[in-house]
Amino acid sequence: MKFHDIELPLGSTTPKHMIPKVTFLAILALLLFAITPVSYPLFSYSSLLKINKYKQQPSSYDGSNNLPSTYVEKCDIFSGEWVPNPKAPYYTNKTCWAIHEHQNCIKYGRPDSEFIKWRWKPNDCELPIFNPFQFLEIVKGKSMAFVGDSVGRNQMQSMICLLSRVEWPIDVSYTNDEYFKRWKYPSYNFTMATFWTPHLVRTKMADSNGPTNTGLFNLYLDEFDDKWTTQIEEFDYIILDGGHWFFRPMVFYEKKKIVGCHFCLLEDVPDLTMFYGYRKAFRTAFKAINSLENFKGVTFLRTFAPSHFENGIWNQGGNCLRTKPFRSSETSLEGTNLELYMIQLEEFKIAEKEGRNKGLKFKLLDTTQAMLLRPDGHPSRYGHWPHENVTLYNDCVHWCLPGPIDTWSDFLLEMLKMEGIRSATS
């Protein structure tokens, strides 16, 4: 809300009969300024306000009331635009060994480099570039778990590269399984770990091919995936994510019985759509966290990062060849992406309320709008050499390193700083 200066005639020549009016206006102005900090967040959360314009809005969404805890002081850091940043990148594919080969776009011949020279600019404030020294001081003696799919692992590898200006971690993994890695920063006694759980709940592959040759998965929607739920109680921070694996064919189980599926093409099994499984999976994942007896940490839900396939879906020739970000006026969250995002927000709000009653904190790491605007940030075909005899689709899901996913660390550090300020003043 913008306030304009009101020029009041308060000089020595002010007529006496105007004093009551002046006093009234002064009191009114003070009241308006007092109310503004309380009401401002309700009007600044543009990710939610924009959703009101969509007809696909789920009936259970109640507008801007009781919004999740996503604000950093009086600025919504998740609403903004990408602006040029000639100082980027802050590491390269030659200085960081943690880059996954399939996201090593520069190494594999991506001809343009402008995609790495942008930063996120919130509409109403500045978002500082990630400071690795500051981050490691904040998380000193603590631990952070990345729980979800390979985009979550993509995020952790980005953070390792950003932190490499200070220190390299050592491998302290309990297993040789690459899906469950642990890294420790000795000088700061800080540990990062990744837990592979693309469906968040207990899952079993029923058919390696399935109707679309991408597998058919049995999802036990009311059962915890103990590969991660039994391991995270010791962590101080959990970053939870999930999304892209729910596009594949799935059979849904509840109470040990089939209740439906998503594109399973099985006789007498109703198609409940991917959204049914997505909602139930997040509900169960949040329930698992809230049921931990000794967990006292903070859970961040990292919201869905849309893919950018054009001219076809991912396994039918789709590609992502753009070289510049969108402006926010050039695209919008809609269709499937909007529905997945809304489901996350709704389930998050439920979990946040339940967690609050147990003294647990939930925070929304809302990357959706920023990443919607980055069709230029994906590996596409630059995740392997052109002459390699491999079967790989154009990758418009993961993110090049360095690249726009590095901004997630900007978001996270700012949230950690503000959480520290709130804790110190509460």
Automatic annotation (TrEMBL):
The keyword Transmembrane applies. It is a single-pass membrane protein. Residues 127-415 form the Trichome birefringence-like C-terminal domain. The chain crosses the membrane at residues 22-43. Keywords: Membrane, Signal-anchor, Transmembrane, Transmembrane helix. It is found in: Membrane. Residues 73-126 form the Trichome birefringence-like N-terminal domain. GO terms for cellular component: Golgi apparatus; membrane. Pfam families: PC-Esterase (PF13839), PMR5N (PF14416). Belongs to the PC-esterase family. TBL subfamily. This is Uncharacterized protein. It comes from Cajanus cajan (Pigeon pea).
